[in-house]
Structure to design on (259 residues):
């Protein structure tokens, strides 16, 4: 679901390296490219530490500028203050439409709120452990775990045999993961914008859901997009695909059953 359909957002991408594995950067940058143009890309860490090894190739590949921030206090994330100061400097430059803050740290909650107060779009990217305070402070929040190339737990190799049960498809597995709270959110959102016949345009439904719940993403439930996710809920929803002015493009509408 695009954050904005009206224009290509000019984004500043600010990455807290202390909270993000370098192996996930490729997937993150590809995701950000769908939402806008990253005109500024900076990553913050104490690059003198041994655990900073491995980042060099990733930064060169994606043209991300490393910002050195020494650790003055043991056990404290040294990148926070430098990232926040840079964000405010970039805000006052007047050259951006939004920010992408990559971190799982709740310390950036107030920054996200301040940027939005200034009319900026704020996209957060972090792990599922991210505190809700930072998530709800963003216009949209994307979990690293659902991105292409995200680190997955390794499973032992097994040899396939004809006697084994076929592997369940991601979408089939996900049908059991759409929790009651999410279903209630979908139902309430459709009711908020439905016409006199109960139909709501799918694009409007998706945009309003994200406004209500910034971390909502069909990929969290195993679906690539919102349409197949809602089509899987045939017991509560009806789907209507209507022809548009453009050949081959259909507008999708949805309404609650027993409306």
């Amino acid at each position: 679901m695009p954050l904005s359909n009206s224009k290509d957002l000019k984004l500043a991408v600010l990455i807290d390296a202390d909270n993000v594995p370098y192996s996930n950067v490729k997937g993150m940058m590809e995701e950000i490219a769908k939402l806008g143009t990253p005109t500024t890309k900076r990553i913050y860490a104490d690059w003198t530490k041994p655990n900073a090894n491995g980042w060099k190739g990733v930064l060169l590949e994606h043209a991300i500028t490393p910002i050195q921030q020494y650790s003055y206090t043991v056990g404290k994330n040294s990148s926070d203050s430098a990232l926040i100061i840079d964000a405010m400097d970039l805000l006052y430059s007047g050259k951006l439409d939004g920010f992408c803050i990559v971190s799982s740290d709740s310390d950036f909650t107030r920054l996200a709120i301040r940027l939005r107060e200034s009319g900026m779009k704020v996209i957060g990217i972090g792990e599922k452990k991210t505190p809700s305070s930072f998530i709800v402070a963003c216009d949209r929040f994307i979990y690293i775990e659902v991105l292409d190339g995200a680190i997955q737990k390794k499973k032992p190799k097994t040899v396939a045999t004809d006697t084994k049960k076929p592997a369940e498809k991601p979408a089939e597995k996900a049908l059991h993961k759409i929790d009651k709270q999410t279903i209630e959110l979908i139902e309430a959102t459709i009711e908020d914008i439905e016409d006199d016949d109960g139909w709501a345009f799918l694009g409007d439904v998706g945009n309003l859901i994200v406004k209500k719940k910034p971390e909502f993403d069909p990929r969290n439930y195993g679906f690539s997009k919102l349409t197949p996710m809602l089509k899987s809920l045939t017991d509560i929803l009806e789907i209507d695909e209507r022809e548009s002015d453009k050949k081959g493009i259909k507008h999708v509408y949805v309404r609650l059953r027993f409306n």
User: Anything to note?
Assistant: The first strand starts at residue 9 and ends at 16. Residues 91 and 115 are 7 Å apart (CA to CA).
